[in-house]
Each structure stands twice: as C-alpha cells, then as structure tokens.
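Q: I'm teaching a short session on how sequence maps to structure, and I want students to see two examples side by side rather than one. Could you give me a first protein with its sequence written out and its structure tokens following it? Keep the formatting plain so it prints cleanly on a handout.
A: Of course. Example one:
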Amino acid sequence: MIYIVTALPCEASPIVKRYDLKRDDACRHFPLYRGDDMFLIVSGVGKMASAIATAYLIAQNVKRDEAGGEEGLAIINIGVCGTLNQRYPIGTPLLIHKVIDHETGKQYFPDILIEHPFEEGSIETYNDVVRREDVLSGRVELQADLVDMEASGFFQAAARFLAPHQIYVIKVVGDYLDVVDFDRQRVAQCISGALDAVDGFIKQVEGLCRVEGDVLTQDERLQLERVKESLRLTVTQSHQLMDMARRYKLRTGRPLPDFSEFAQTRVKVKAEGRKALERIRRLLLYE
C-alpha cells in the first residue's frame, strides 16, 4: 500500500488523474483520495498541516492485522520546492536523503534501500516563504540544496508510525526562489512532468512493501511482539527491531534466531531494554 501526502490540490491533481483515484467524501477533515493500493491526502501548506494530515492518514487507514499492515506500506511526500541552484532545471524531481528543520535544527534521514532514477538531494523546511533576495542579502543562510515548507513536519509525523525505509520525500524543482505570483497550472505541470519517474519508483517501493509484508512468518511476528513487550521497547525501538529482523531474513535466507531469552526478560528500566536491543542488533546484523 502506498500513501501519498501533497500540500496543494494542484500538486495532487496530476497524481489523482494518473492513478484514477476517487474522492472519499466520508473524510471531512482533509481532501482524501483512494485507489486499490493507494491513498492520497492533501494537507495544506506548512509543516504543521503536513504533520497533522500525515498522522491522520496513517492512523486512520493502517490495518493492524496478522499480515503486518504497518510493515507492508510506504508513505511519500510529493510536491514542488524552490532552490537557488540553477543547475537543477525547473521540473527536476529529486529524492531527498536528508531533511532539515530550519527552526529546530533537527535532521531526518530517509533510509533509501532501493535503486532509483532520481538525483538525490537535501531539503530544508521553513515556516515562511524563502525569497531569493533574502538569501543573497545574507538574511537567510541555506543549509540544504532545496527549500520547502512541509518535509520536516511530514517526516517527523510519519516516523512516529513507520521505519525510515518506509518514508520517502520526492520534491520537484518549481522555482529559483523568485516566484511573485503563484501559478497553480505551472505547479501541476511540474508534478505531471515528473510522474513517469515517480511511477517507476512507486512500483519499486510496492515490490519492497510486498517483500517486507511477507518475509516474517506469523510465529516470528508473535515472537517479536513478545520481545517488544518484555523489553518495554518504544515505538521507534519496535520499528528498529522489526527492520533488523526483516533484513536478517532477506540477507541470510534463514529463520530468525531463538529470542526466547529476550522474551522471558522483564526489564524494570528503559536502559535495560536498550542494552538488550543492542545485543539483538549485534546478533542480527553481524551473524
């Protein structure tokens, strides 16, 4: 299952048309579109709006069943961005490998595990529109290749539910920080022109999702759930455990090791859980 988050209706419209998505009129909080294997939500502008819509989309629609709904999906933030670097032609799509929140200084790193056709780049998320003159005058000092207003909010919210290799940001260069009048048609054309590459990427991600969803047996999932409970793992630590287990199986082709020692451990403080998780990490990554 692929979840897509866009900020603007004009960013969403080419995607909705390409995948023949249908408006879900039952959703009163956001414009929400559905297909057989895809959800798309339009968040509105800004990192807070993007974070809220992202969390809503995942929380409302993930199926927590025996097949492992969370592990069998990926979420992608798609939209236009600005850059001062004119080596990127207008309409160039980039896959983001680092997201920086300008206000907090926090950095987020998608875990890109698949081959893709994009150039990779970094993006810095601002609360306000960044103008070319702000950068050239020195009032704003850019820390990344691209700038936008949503990526850090999107990533921070998605990471509460999903592992880094399930979270992607694709941004299409829409301007050189010189836009005076916002042009919806131009934005839609930028997204539309990138959709062939995006579609190929989505197909690869869907293949990874199918592998991620099927690689663990039901008994292995139950064993890992017991470990999570016994070690009192946080949401992030639980995602790390599942990710390491899947990678182990994909790399070795063998069943998971016996984790009964960890499932029978009852930790009293979080530090004990962290130490036990590190032992599991060594067991899975270096065996």
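Q: Perfect. Now a second example for contrast.
A: Example two:
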Amino acid sequence: MTVSEAARLGLRFPRRDRGFAFALAIDVIWPMLVLGTRMRMRGREHIPRTGGVLVASNHLSFADPVTVTAFCLASGRVPRYLAKADLWQAPVIRSVMASGKHIPVHRGRANARDAYRDAVASVNAGECVVVFPESTFSDHPGGWPVQGKSGIARIALATGMPVVPVANWGTHHVLPPKGKLPRFLPKRRIDLVAGPPVDLSDLAGPKPGARDLRVATDRIMAAVTELLGEVRGEEPPPAP
C-alpha cells in the first residue's frame, strides 16, 4: 500500500458513530501510521459491512489497537474493543474509550461479567466488536499466539454471530512491548490479513459447556495462527 493509496483509504473510512474523541484520535494517528510504516491489508471482504461480528486478532504490541482499527475502518466498520477497565481511568484515553463505545473488562472483580453482557448486547445490536483473545501480549519466543481465553467463544456461541480471524504482524517492530520508544526509521512493514469466519455452528447455544468453549476458543486461535503463518511464510507451532 503506497502513501497515496493509504491516504485515499483514510478518506473513505466510515465517519458516523465514532464519537468525538475516538474520531479525533483516529484522525491524528492515521497520518502518522501512513507516513511511518508500510501497511499491507488483505481479506477485508471477510468482515461483513453490516450486522454483528466479532473480530479476533493476535496481540504483540500497544500499537495493535491502532492497526486493527485501521483495518476495520478500511473494511467499512467502526470497531468496539473489549479492553481492560484501567484505560477508563487514564487521562485523555478515557475520553477515547468512552466516546468510542468500547467495553471495559474488570478483571478479577465481581462485575467482570458486565463485559460479557455488554459485548453480547453490542454484537446483537449490529456492532463490530474486536477481541484480543490472548488478553495480553504473546510471550511466545517466536511471536506466535499463545492459548486464548474463552471470552470471545462464549460471546460467539451465545449470539451466533460470525468470528473473523485476523493476523497482525509487524507492530512489535514499530512499538516494542517492553517500554521502548517507537521505531519509524527505517519504515517497518505491517501486515494485516483476515480470513473467513470460523465455523462454530456445531457448538452454538445459549449455555455452552466448558468443553464447547475450549473447542471454540482453540478453533479461533488456530485460524488466527494459520493466517499468521501465511503472513510470515513460516510453519506455525502445532499448538499454542
């Protein structure tokens, strides 16, 4: 994707229902991403233009929400993130999270179930909800996805909405996860690739059991890992 192509793509991003602070953050960060990286996007047609959908991506860097947001917007959707509740306490960021209708996750607290309830409601209302199933950066020495948490599977099975896997590669070279400064020179390549929705039809139901949740989660992570292997041109590990 050339700079001019990326700039034109930015002009075609959906602009309705982004919220003021979230929209402002997008408009500020997108030009930096265009000028500071070489982005390649494939598989945008797998994200439906309308209706509820879940997007599952691997997680390597604090830059991932930026690149996955760009990918969703380029696919015609405004993403809503499941994200740790601490972000709603941080100055500036809390305005972005609130205006963007993102969903706080209160880990290890009594109201942790609220995230599940709110995510189900959001997907059922026709939103595009993005989840990083690993819940944190991958600690695999080769950068491969690790075992995912079952939250996205629980939401998918309860709603029957499609889960689109996305492989995101290169953000850890731009913004390393361990407190280092961003690296824009030389320009780093970032790849984002989506695949067809993961087939969970045989597991769907309002009250999935533990086995169903594990099987669904493993299928989702396997789809993300397979896509990442294609992006990297490498054979992924046999299991997370």
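Q: What should students look for in example two?
A: Point them to this: Residues 3-232 form a domain with the Glycerol-3-phosphate (1)-acyltransferase fold (CATH 3.40.1130.10). Also worth mentioning: The longest helix spans residues 210-232.
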